[in-house]
Amino acid sequence: MTGIEIDDIQSAALRPRPVPYVGRFAFLRVDDRHAGRALLRRLLPAIDGGWPSPDPSQDAWVAVAFTYQGLRALGVPQESLDSFSQPFREGMAARADHIGDVGESAPANWEPPFGTGEVHIAVSALSPDAARLHKALERAHVAFHETPGVEVIWQQEVRQLPTGRTTFGFRDGISHPNIEGVGLPGSNPRETPIKAGEFILGYPDETGNLPPMPSPDVLGHNGTYVAVRKIHTKVAAWRQHLRANSSGAEDEALLAAKMVGRWPSGAPLTLAPDHDDRELGADPHRNNDFLYRENDKHGLRCPAGAHIRRVNPRDADIIGDARMHRLIRRGTTYGPPLPEGVTEDDGADRGLIGVFTGAHLDRQFEFIKAEWVNDGNFIGYPGEQDPVAGHHDGTGTVTIPDKPIRRRLKNLPSFVATRGGEYCFLPGLRALRWITELQD
């Protein structure tokens, strides 16, 4: 196998986010291509590649990605633009019906500038603390303010909540794929390494072939595609539904766990079926060490329709090959938490910024959304959506296997709403330099 050129890959493509974390996402519009390239030249020293880094100061890092319209605005030749994948060229808003962004989640209801074509450059920064985040962003701020012709048009602060959990109250960021040749261990010791070409362009994928790659090679090699999503979470509606369908606090906690697939601590139902196990949830060597066919074939512990089992079926008996659709999934929380026990919506915007990374937008992110999140045919429940991430609009159904008889919840409302999304390309470091050196 060809060695993976780790030093040329933006570290944000492969590194798990820090725990705890603070961060910022920013979208930029390029009004002058020369100014856009000048901005990138100023940003380059702040963008690191490689894993792992021996320098502890690199626990904070900055990443830069581009939309199709952004690459065009920077002056990338049309021949190269035409070589990118169709979903990327069209953009997430144009693919909304396919991936289930309908109703209140339709692009017409998105927060500007999502889906407007004005998002050209996406800059992200994550760090374990505010001091290191500030240090990582210093150069970026200088670049922004010293480059007329480039405008920051959207920013979002993210941070881990004091509880260490999502707005729904569950620990996140537990699962990370085992990627062959990268040198970064996966979170599940039972997972056979997945070919690097599923995540980084220029290397064989699970089919044994090289994924289609943008041209010239210097632009595509060591790059990847990223789907960025702003997801509003309806925490009050979540709590109301759980309470209305439970007989008491213990039953409510179990129902929530059945819908998610884990307990709030992160302990998986497959290993802790009856009650939360905080020690298990906090142990990175055990909290992801399971398979479904071996530990829970019939879903009596973790339902086949539970959120974590849908988005990563592992070795479960499903229609298709789960390894062909693996993603690097990261979520970061924004907005204030809804106080514990409150069941009335306070009007605050809260949720997560999701970042989904893979070499194939169509058979990874889009397939998971269309086939696994928005439909249950692959697990034998046609029409049933992901109980947490699906867009139900009061008509949803979820099946929970049990003995002697299964339980079926009806009339699920939507617990999330898409506030916006963009498809981006995250180039390698040589590709970034190539873009800065473009000539008109």
UniProtKB/TrEMBL annotation:
Domain of life, per lineage: Bacteria
Gene Ontology cellular component terms for the protein in this record: cytosol
Spans annotated as Disordered: 268-289
Keyword tags: Iron, Metal-binding, Oxidoreductase, Peroxidase
Residue ranges, compositional bias (Basic and acidic residues): 273-289
Keyword set includes Aminoacyl-tRNA synthetase: no
Residues covered by the DyP dimeric alpha+beta barrel domain: 61-146
A molecular function GO annotation: metal ion binding
Cofactor: heme b
Record-stated family: Belongs to the DyP-type peroxidase family.
Protein name as annotated: Dyp-type peroxidase family
Native species: Actinoplanes digitatis
